[in-house]
User: Which sequence fits this backbone?
């Protein structure tokens, strides 16, 4: 009896741990979001609004727009519409890793660069 209870509990724990992370990416294809990161030791906040094929970012008092090309429900590529220099001409690949009720964790990198960064965006509208 106790052995069966132990095996049942062990099976439940192992089954729960093996569940893939939640990825309801389509819930985050559009909306208004905030993202905070640390740059040179200083915390910086970006507010962005995403539409089906356009993202408008506000960062450090500047507004910028990027086109969006969706690869699938959880991955897309951003390309700055009005780049001001060579660095801004580079596209950014974003992959949503997990989702929660009002946020998602993502991984991003400049296309062609092997360095990847992670962040969490919070839906605010």
Assistant:
């Amino acid at each position: 009896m106790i052995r069966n209870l132990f095996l049942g509990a062990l099976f439940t724990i192992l089954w729960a741990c093996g569940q893939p992370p939640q990825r309801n990416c389509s819930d985050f294809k559009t909306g208004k979001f905030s993202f905070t990161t640390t740059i040179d030791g200083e915390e910086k906040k970006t507010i962005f609004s995403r539409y089906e094929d356009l993202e408008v970012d506000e960062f450090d008092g500047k507004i910028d727009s990027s086109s969006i090309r969706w690869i699938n429900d959880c991955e897309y590529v951003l390309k700055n519409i009005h780049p001001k220099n060579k660095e801004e001409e580079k596209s950014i690949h974003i992959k949503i890793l997990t989702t929660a009720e009002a946020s998602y964790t993502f991984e991003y990198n400049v296309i062609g660069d092997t360095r990847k960064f992670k962040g969490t965006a919070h839906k605010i509208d």
Observations:
- The longest helix spans residues 2-17.
- The CA atoms of residues 2 and 8 lie 10 Å apart.
- The chain has one domain: 24-123.
- The first strand starts at residue 31 and ends at 39.
